[in-house]
Amino acid sequence: MADPLHILAARLQAAFDAVAGRTGVDPVIRPSEHADAQANGALALAKELGRSPRDVAQAVLEACGGLSGVCSSIEVAGPGFLNLVLDNSFLAGELSTVATDERLGVGVVAPRKVIIDYSAPNVAKEMHVGHLRTTVIGDALVRLMEHLGHEVIRENHIGDWGTPFGMLIEHLLDLGETQAADHLSLGDLDGFYKQARAKFDADDVFKDRARARVVLLQSGDTETRRLWKLLVDLSTKHFNAVYSLLGILLTDDDLMGESAYNDLLPQVITRLDALGLLQQSDGADVVFPPGYTNRDGDPLPLIVQKGQGGFNYATSDLACVIDRVERIGADLLLYVVGAPQAQHLSMVFDVARMAGWLKDPVEAVHVSFGSVLGSDRKMLKSRSGDPLKFIDLVTEAVARADEAIAAKNPELPADERARVARMVGIGAVKYADLSTDRVRDYVFDWERMLSFDGNTAPYLQYAHARICSIFRRAGIDRASVASTTLSVVEPQERDLALKILGFESAILDTLERYSPHRLCTYLYELATAFTAFYEHCPVLKADDDAIRASRLALCDLTARVMNRGLGLLGIDAPEQM
Question: Which of 574 and 483 is assigned the larger pLDDT?
Fold first, then answer.
């Protein structure tokens, strides 16, 4: 099912091509105050052909031929504009088709094998607000990609390797396994890490033990690996608790930590050297991708092996590319990683292209995002000054939502209110993030994100619940109206119809830019269009039974699109609030 404006665009494109005698003349379709669409490509084409713009516009209209039944009004206006008004009967027919379609008019696309790298917490550290955006944005992209038919592989690239594990394992041994496990199981991962770091910084004997333990870990010592695995497993329980509370799709099967690429790291160096790409710089092995310079204007290297022979993030990230392309066979790699990593990832991708590991049609895309700020416009922190813990943020959101719902609907039973509060609180946190253009920073504001007015999750959830209440009050089964013949008469019905029929376009537009805020904007506009419809077009008290049935069907269809759209963002839509 196509957006009506896309139907017009396709037919006008063919007409422009016919008049031009070739392909590639692209008409511009845009909303208009006085018509549903205008095509102004005639002006450019007239200049190219040396003809009057109005003559060219008329020729395009004649070449269209098949717009009767689609448009109720077609005319050449002004210096050569084409004004086209979609026919209400056409819109009603398209709506009826969508209403009986399980996918609500959203088609599937030619599938790609997509790897989405997101969340990426560190072992022995609690997830904090810095993990919010990567987790929420990545999860929404997974849902959207899967809905369009792509084969999506989730990879949670956790930090589970490297020199800090020497001090962490030694601290675990000092505490004793049982006490350490109890300590970590209680959720105080940060406390455990800070204690280990303090000992490392203050005690030279402990520092020597930690460094020796790193050597044992990297060499594959059985006992050291067992203790390392214990730390990973205890940390993973914490990650899973956060994911479960937040409704994130990631599971243990999606874990792909830094340790998974350890055996590939020497191959990265060997293969780069064999290709003649390795150079020496200050004792380190580096690659100089073209186009990068430091502050002094000198070529900037990507260091792939440190002077002491150690590997780093660049080595691991290049190993990731090799694994994801050569072993998994992915042709689209999405990295949902913060904006500060832009240059690093750009250099990694360029080196991978130089090495031939990334080549058409394989794409690697950095889906960057800004920071979450406090009211002081600095990084959001807890009252203690530490990064705000993810699980504390979510817990507070649910508690605040519970208070708001109790005030709005005091008659809602306590158990139902708790269930709805979880949906609303978590939805509010996710939507506040997703509705912001991901490349921008945003200020975390409890009052705004939990408001029932404006572009917020509670506003959209309440719009959905209000539609459900129409059927509940009338004692009507929503399934009974799904196949009703719809009609479009009033301007508000027309506006709502056009918005519903734009659902597929909104999803495609969102994924074209990997920007969930575009789907959020669509859903807000859908809710706004429904509000205008509901205020101006009586539903249960409609003038006759046919109009009542049509408007009930339009309400149901709106609710289904709203529910599906929110679901694709990972947000639940309660039926009462």
Answer: 574
Q: What is the DSSP string of 5-22?
A: HHHHHHHHHHHHHHHHTS
The helix, strand and coil proportions of the chain, stated in percent and rounded to the nearest 5, come to 55, 10, 30
List pLDDT tens digits, range 36-83: 444 455 666 667 777 887 887 788 777 776 577 888 888 887 777 778
Largest CA distance in the chain: 89
Nearest to 148 by CA among 279, 320, 297, 332: 332
CA neighbor of 37 nearest in space, from 1, 87, 2, 79: 87
* Beta partners for residue 56, in sequence order: none
380, 386, 391, 394: CA torsion to nearest 10:
-30
Q: What is the pLDDT of residue 51?
A: 81
Helix, coil or strand: residue 492:
helix
CATH number for 113-156+258-367: choose from 3.40.50.1820, 3.40.50.620, 3.30.750.24, 3.90.1070.20. 3.40.50.620
Closest by CA position to 4, among listed 98, 121, 143, 100: 98
Q: How many residues does the chain have?
A: 577
CATH code: domain 390-568 is 1.10.730.10
Residue with tokens 């050449």: 76
- Residue 407 host element (H or E): helix 390-408
d(CA 122, CA 350): 26
| pTM summary value | 0.91
**Same fold: 4-86 with 113-156+258-367:** no
| Residue the block writes with tokens 């946190």 | 429
Q: Measure the CA–CA gap between 128 and 389, rounded to whole angstroms.
A: 4
CA angle 551, 553, 557 (to 5 degrees): 115
Rounded CA gap, 118 and 335, in Å? 7
pLDDT over 60 at 186, yes or no: no
Residue type (1 letter), 383 = R
What is the CATH code for 4-86? Answer: 3.30.1360.70
Cβ atoms of 286 and 303 closer than 8 Å: yes
Domain chopping of the chain, boundaries: 4-86, 113-156+258-367, 164-249, 390-568
Contact 558, 496 (CB under 8 A): yes
pLDDT at 189: 80
| Rounded Cα distance, 76 and 423, in Å | 51
Instruction: Return the bridge partners of 75, or none.
Output: 83
Residue 355 has pLDDT above 50, yes or no: yes
Residues with Cβ within 8 Å of residue 32, at least 6 apart in sequence: 38, 83
How far apart are the C-alpha atoms of 437 and 365, rounded to whole Å? 17
SS in 3 state form for 31-92? Answer: CCCCCCEEECHHHHHHHHHCCCHHHHHHHHHHHHCCCECCEEEEEEECCCEEEEEECHHHHH
Determine contact, residues 397/434, Cβ cutoff 8 Å. no
Q: What is the CA radius of gyration of the chain?
A: 29
Of the candidates 365, 387, 361, 362, the one whose C-alpha atom is nearest the C-alpha of residue 374 is 387
The two structure tokens encoding residue 4: 């009506």
